[in-house]
Design a protein that fits this description.
By secondary structure, this protein is an alpha+beta fold. It is built from 3 helices and 6 strands, in the order H-H-E-E-H-E-E-E-E.
């Protein structure tokens, strides 16, 4: 179990998520925020699908990247931002379901680099199927807070 540096990590991470226009664009939500772990949920809508009717792989990558990145952010100080520097995504099955859930978690927390992972599940007719697996490296940006919507 990871221990957060910032006791007020959850409201800070929730505000950071709300400050990300890309997640709003696709209609994603982040209902679960715990130390070293977050979940991003995305309901299937025609706007996020590809030509076969599955949720687009790029959108799957977006929610995996954000879930794991925000998981890392739960463990940083309030004055530290996070930035993805690399990720590897395996699409294991079509993202075919009414709901996608990206479960992001911290594998190793370091001062500068944080290694995370995400699993993305498609929920269809009550059944949960793994459709993507991601490993990610996050860079901690000490002393660099993110821009707010007002300062972008």
């Amino acid at each position: 179990m990871h221990k957060p540096i910032d006791p007020d990590f959850a409201p800070r991470v929730r505000a950071s998520f709300a400050n990300q226009p890309a997640m709003a664009l696709i209609g994603a939500t982040m209902p679960v925020i715990e130390p070293g772990y977050t979940e991003i949920h995305l309901h299937c809508r025609p706007e996020v699908t590809q030509q076969h009717g599955y949720i687009h792989g790029g959108v799957v990558g977006m929610i995996a990247d954000s879930a794991a990145g925000f998981a890392a952010n739960t463990l940083t100080s309030a004055e530290t931002g996070v930035l993805t520097v690399e990720y590897k995504l395996n699409l294991l099955a079509p993202a075919d379901g009414q709901l996608l859930i990206a479960e992001g978690s911290v594998v190793r927390y370091g001062r500068t680099l944080i290694v995370t992972k995400a699993e993305v599940f498609a929920i269809k007719d009550g059944k949960k199927a793994l459709c993507a697996l991601m490993q990610q490296t996050i860079m901690a940006l000490h002393g660099k807070k993110e821009k707010t919507n007002e300062t972008k």
